[in-house]
Amino acid sequence: VQFVESGGGMVQPGGSLRLSCTASGFTFSDYGMGWFRQAPGKGRHFVAGINWSGSNPYYSDSVKGRFTISRDNDNMTAHLQMDSLEPEDTAVYFCNAVAGHSFFFDSWGRGTQVTVSP
Questions:
Q1: What does DSSP say about strands 57-59 and 44-50: parallel, antiparallel, or unpaired?
Q2: pLDDT single digits (tens) 18-36
C-alpha cells in the first residue's frame, strides 16, 4: 500500500490550494478515502472523508464549508480543494483509506506541507 500526496505550498490567508493523493497497492474503489493533517508539535487529525463512490463527503467541523473532498476511482486519486485558508490550517497533510474518521492502513506517505501565512 502506498500513498503519494502533492499540491501543498505557501499561501496567504484567504487563499486556496488543491491537494492530490495517488494511491496504489489496494482496490481503491473498495474503500473510503480521507485526508488528515498534522500541525507542528501536534497529533495527526482527521480533516475530510469520502465514501467509496464519492456520493457522501464528510468533514471535520474546523474545515466544513471551506474544504471539498473528491475522488476519481478510475485514476485511483483523491483530492482536497481548500478555500478560505486560515493560518490554523498550516500543517502537513496526509491521505489514507478510511472507515469513518479512522484511517485504515498503517502505511503513510510523506505528506504535503501547507503553510498559510501573511
A1: antiparallel
A2: 999 999 999 999 999 999 9
> Which of 39, 37, 43 is CA-nearest to residue 82?
37
Across the strands, what pairs with 38?
A: 44, 92
Handedness of CA 88, 85, 77, 112 (dihedral sign): negative
Tens-digit pLDDT profile for residues 52-79: 999 999 999 999 999 999 999 999 999 9
Q: How far apart are CA 79 and CA 82, in angstroms?
A: 10
| Residue among 25, 20, 38 at smallest CA distance from 104 | 25
